[in-house]
Amino acid sequence: MFYRHTLKPNELALVIPNVNECLFALHTKLAARDYEVTVYKYGQEYFVLDDARIFKQIQGMEQESQGDEEEILPYVEEAFEDNCYTAVEEDFIQLELNILATISDSRPVQVRYYEFTDFI
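^ that's the sequence the OP posted. Answer follows.
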């Protein structure tokens, strides 16, 4: 099961260290281009996913605040299978979120955050 939240970059920076599995997508319009990045966190590892299929899938789920993780996780698995990811350190993610928090004062930054939970 997943839960979707709309957060600000500085709020996300506080949340992600405390969750085991999540996915978040960031989007903003910069002066020269659109900035889009999708990050998957599992345990203490972070992966930047370079796969447009994931971003497209979550854009189609805008109205859902919760749902079946099978709507998202197969796209994450495909990105890994197709080697469309880069492992990054948490410090890099925190730096990026701090920069986006500063930018968000002058332009909107859209953060789509999905937290995955298992019910036993």
